[in-house]
Amino acid sequence: MASDSGGTPPGPPPSVRILVVGGGYVGMYTALRLQRKLKQRLRSGEAEIVVVTPDPYMTYQPFLPEAAAGSISPRHVVVPLRRVLPHCTIVLGEAQRIDHTKRTATVTTLATGEDGTGAIEIPYDEIVIAPGSVSRTLPVPGLAAHGFGFKTIEEAIGLRNHVIEQMDIASATRDLAIRDAALTFVFVGGGYAGVEALAELEDMARYTARYYHNIKAEDLKWILVEATGRILPEVGEAMGKYAVRELRGRNIDVRLDTRLESCEDRVAVLSDGARFPTRTLVWTAGVKPAPLLAATGLPLNERGRLICTASLTVEGTEHAWAAGDAAAVPDLTSDEPGRETAPNAQHAVRQAKVLAENIVAAMNGEPLKEYRHSYAGSVASLGLHKGVAHVYGRRLKGYPAWLIHRMYHLSRVPTFNRKARVLAEWTLAGLFKREIVSLGSLEHPRAEFELAAGRHPGPDDDGR
């Protein structure tokens, strides 16, 4: 089947329509495996796979820090769904609610606001609910106005442009207060996203500083704020302490057991009383399930995730499946009663494989498999040639850990095309100097033309 574009609802349902809500790890990998397993049925029209996703690509999030640092091109961090899912119908839009009693999903598409026809209803026979997660924010004064997220490729590249732009401002201003605020970068959250983003960007900015006549690397102030007493809990306590020592050795101010109280007027106020005027505040303090889950009428646990069986069916419900961030899946490899699998990419990719096979088995009237995977460990980058790892009980740090981090994620990024491109970029980056260009104007592409045409866009005008 040819891939369909954004706004047109799918045609009359075939014998079996499988609706996949979400185009992230679980959504893409499930659809990818289903189109292989159901190749003949898809060709004959006996089955159809519909993928509803707000973006036409899947983002490989572990590469976001390297994209922000300029080690990987942004287009190589994303996987175009239409290319890898040629036998699926791709609907660009967002599921607003799911009525599983009627087996319909209400979806708004890119055309919804243009043609005035309103949301469409897509009927289904089987549904895979995998909308992923969203940033978990707190009611911190000033956060919505001044904070940056770090969950999408747009945010990663926007942050890179912003950091270099702040160095340009600091280099040009005569106001010492503006210079100090421009060169102060505050990151909130000591998990993977926060630590890797800070470490990679600090590495990049320190290198960039050599090209400014009046900025030295030691002029830049980096602060990591973590509410608990440790960072990177996934790599173990020992490696987490090593990561703190490594970051502090690079003059990064790591503040544990500390919270962000306010960031109004571009001043980060911490719970320990410290105040930092800053023009850059990055919020990476965790995620929460997508709001769609609350609009499904399906059973949720206390954290808002779908209660699932080990076979990845929604508990007490037929024809509904879930995995990844959206699902609370029992961990059959744990000796601890009631323990669930961690909502991370390592489990999501493997769960998607089992989920797809179980859907095919259910269609064929065969028994379902249970998901079972022992956690292999974790790796984290702390910048170029630096990292920590806790893999199969072994602890590694420095260059070996960084190398394992790269090789692991290279093996996991989807498609041979992406693997080859990323490897080529890493090779070229080792032979040539870093790129230090800010392309912040990409975020406002029409600003210059509007200025020439006589319109004067404001500072918050996106040019559209």
In brief:
The protein has 14 helices and 24 strands. With 464 residues, the protein is of the alpha/beta class. The protein has 2 domains: 194 residues, FAD/NAD(P)-binding domain (3-Layer(bba) Sandwich); 197 residues, FAD/NAD(P)-binding domain (3-Layer(bba) Sandwich), CATH 3.50.50.100.
Structure, explained:
The protein is of the alpha/beta class. The protein folds into two domains: 16-133 and 288-363, FAD/NAD(P)-binding domain, CATH 3.50.50.60; 143-285 and 378-431, FAD/NAD(P)-binding domain (3-Layer(bba) Sandwich), CATH 3.50.50. 32% of the residues lie in helices and 22% in strands. The chain contains 14 helices and 24 strands. It has helices spanning 25-37, 39-44, 64-69, 81-84, 112-115, 143-146, 153-172, 176-182, 192-208, 237-249, 345-363, 399-412, 416-431, 447-452, and strands at 16-21, 47-53, 57-59, 78-80, 89-99, 104-109, 120-123, 126-129, 133-135, 147-148, 184-188, 221-225, 252-255, 260-262, 267-270, 275-277, 280-283, 287-289, 306-307, 320-322, 327-328, 377-381, 387-391, 394-397. The strands form seven sheets. It has a seven-stranded mixed beta sheet. It has a five-stranded parallel beta sheet with strand order 10-17-11-12-13. A hairpin with a 5-residue loop joins strand 22 and strand 23 (387-391). Helix 7 packs antiparallel against helix 8 (176-182). The longest helix is centred in the middle third of the chain and has 20 residues, at 153-172. The chain is globular and about 70 Å long. The mean pLDDT is 89.
